[in-house]
Design a protein that fits this description.
276 residues, mainly alpha, elongated
Length: 276
Amino acid sequence: MKRHDGCLVAASTNAIRQVMMKSLWLKFLTYPMNPKQPDRPDLPGLSDEESTSSESTVPARPEPLSDPAVSRQLLGSWLRANTLGFAIASTALFFISLLLPFRDLLAAGFFVGGIVGPLQALVLRRQILKLKVWQWSLACILGGYLGTFLGLIAMLYVVGIDWPLPFIDWASIGVFGAFIGICVGWGQVLVIDRYVRGLRRWWAANVIGRSLGWLSAQLLWLLLTQRAVMFPVESLDSLPVVVLCSAVGGLVYGVVTAQALPYLVPAPAAITDHPA
């Protein structure tokens, strides 16, 4: 009897074991490959699609100008801003020179910096989000005044020396433009120093661009009018030529400085501390 009871216990134990094994295998085979995620609390003011995308998207940040290169849209906007800016500024200086001869140099820093500066800043703000238009414009104005003052001193010094070279007058114009580029570029560097890197190239491009811009405008003026200097103007008939030469000079400046745009990479602080 005891043996019979032991056989019943063993049989029932084996049956229970088989049932458990079958249930485990069934659960394993039917377990979903992508288990259901726990419900997420709904974000206030967002739909399901928006809340899902908000978790997967990366916070907005300035796109590096060198990734992979300056876009055609940015390049075109930069060239148009400088070409149009210098053309408009030269128009204002033309009428000042026509009404008040030799006063155009006193107003050059204000008009060139106050017109070209904002146009440049509006283009650069697409990449340098924290750039303030008024700071950039003020740097261009003050740098233009300081550069004009130092450039005139350097140009008079170069012209005043009895150089044996015939092209020294053209060299003095290039030196004058270079001093403006030094001062304007320095002011711009102080404004964007916290936001981007690659400022050495930008400063050098400003110096070269201003120098070549002045030389190209003055050379075109000489070819079209057979006169040595553009200002002071003598008659209203010279306005189209002045605007054309200034636009060409601005275009040359824009092309040169555009070579440094890809190297204005946002600094880490400017990327992580982006505006909300």
